[in-house]
Amino acid sequence: MMSWKHIFEKWDSFEDLEPNLIQELKELKSDPVALEDAFYKELTFGTGGMRGVIGAGINRMNVYTIRKAVNGLANYLLDHTVNVKDRGVVIAYDSRHMSKEFALETAKVLGSFGITSYVFSSLRPTPLLSFAVRYLGTVSGVMITASHNPPEYNGFKVYNEYGGQITPNQASEIVTCINKVEDELSVPYLEKKELEEKELLNWIKDEIDNAYLDKLQGISKMPADKIEIEKEMPIVFTPLHGTAAELVPKGLKQLNFKHVHVVKEQAVADPEFSTVASPNPEEHQAFTMAIEQGKQIDATLLLATDPDADRLGVAVKNSAGSYQVLTGNQLGALMLDYILAHSDEALLRSGRMIKTVVTSELGRAVADYYGIQTLNTLTGFKFIGEKIRQFDRTGETFVFGYEESYGYLISSFARDKDAVQASVMACEMAYYWQQQGKTLLDALYDLFARHGYYFEHMQSITLKGKEGSEKIGVIMDDVRRKPAEQIGGLKVVQMEDYLVSKRTLRDGNVETIELPKENMVKYKLEQDCWICLRPSGTEPKIKCYFGVRGTSEEDSKNKLATLQESMNQILQGTIEV
């Protein structure tokens, strides 16, 4: 590969460069560090696609890096899938800067291969894109989104013909095809007018929305007569300037929730996300405006979805009268319990619940209570989607899937986490418990009383740059070379090393982990506690997950604090070496 300076010179001398990028290159020339960062490597295409800062350069999101990625994707599809040109690719986009432009560029490159594109005429949620792939029978789907990243980011997310995120093997083969594209500035494409004339570009309006809403109504566990009742429960909803502004209220209206109050300032599709520090419902500051509105109307429930509507946060009033945001683990366990408590025996016999290895074990306890088998996957909803696809062959029934980072799926008509489904189910569940004289917090503490007090925490250590990356590697190597025998006064009963897919028991016996390999280590401790270490796949961080089970809330919080303190000492010692 040529040096970054030569690549920059190629871009700088390219006569047909996009006008906005010409201006940016002029500005970059006065900032050598930023200039090198924009050109020193290609934007990484990972297991879900690629994500990065919008701007000029091969390490940025722009029409040229999009075109190169789409060219590789097209060649992969033509080599691995049948009837590609006729079946086509469906494309959606969110509210971010350049999202619609990148969606159209995707269609323009696909059109140069004679591949038909179906593009939504306005922004839509990620789960709707997942649904559309299977509804239309396309060979693939593309979602232009950077989820809840800062405003300067955008991304290119790829889905397979089953509506799930591409698997690691599929991503690897797509990358091979992308790498064969020698010059990102000369990728062939057709203009919009020519695409439309050749019927290679089809604009989608309401058809997919209506089909999705029909399926959405079917996830309800309420009897028909209960659905018909007008529900007076006040709800506040914020789409955080994203794509769920229409579908969530429509979904709730189908179940006759009459008092859904949308935070108007945050219903605007604002690519700057100007009313929040971060458009991430995992962060409590994202609820600030919803809480203010909730207090005004005495709302029972607050809902917040991220910009591409695949994550949901929920807040509920506590005994002090203030709104408390439930964790992803807590909301997931509550929804699972509600769904299983209102399912028939036939479903329970073949039902399967899927969670990730860093998600709370409270979900497993709930599933066990109803006689449902729990399946673990690696982190990332793509693995849950792939497991659901396997059920089509095995005859097993998917009943619920979730991960601790606010991602849930109730019904498999979508194959990715779905905040629209989760919003509707959370409100139905809250209404049910309200009719029993309880809040969701009351229901949660009922689960604790039945199964044990499960508490979790995740913390990250940021280690930037080449030196930071090397230290992350040292930490993981050190954990493997010198496995702990006890942490925080609790004995290690099992160590799982997912990089070699081995599970080592305290007695020295070794078992195989039936999951793909990943750079992750999990300690299982006595008293149903655990710790998991995992480098982030998208940021210069090492993540440490903690899970405990206690006899009381105080007992669990004490265990959690002790484990955190002990693990921090272990990690800090490694970092300082």
Detailed description of the structure:
41% of the residues lie in helices and 21% in strands. It is built from 21 helices and 23 strands. Strands 16, 17, 18, 19, 20, 21, 22 and 23 form an 8-stranded antiparallel beta sheet that branches. Strands 1-5-4-2-3-6 form a 6-stranded mixed beta sheet, sandwiched between helices. It has a 5-stranded mixed beta sheet with strand order 8-7-9-10-11, with helices on both faces. Strand 2, helix 6 and strand 3 form a beta-alpha-beta unit. The mean pLDDT is 94.
Short overview:
The protein is an alpha/beta fold and 577 residues long.
Shape: globular
Determine the strand fraction and express it as a percent band: 15-25%
The rounded Rg comes to 24 Å
Q: First CA to last CA: what distance?
A: 36 Å
How many strands, which pairing sense, and closed or not: the largest β-sheet?
8 strands, antiparallel
Record field, number of beta strands: 23
Give the helix/strand class. alpha/beta
Helix content range: 40-55%
Helix count from the secondary structure assignment: 21
Q: Which residue ranges are poorly predicted, with pLDDT under 50 across at least 5 consecutive positions?
A: none
Mean pLDDT over the full residue set: 94
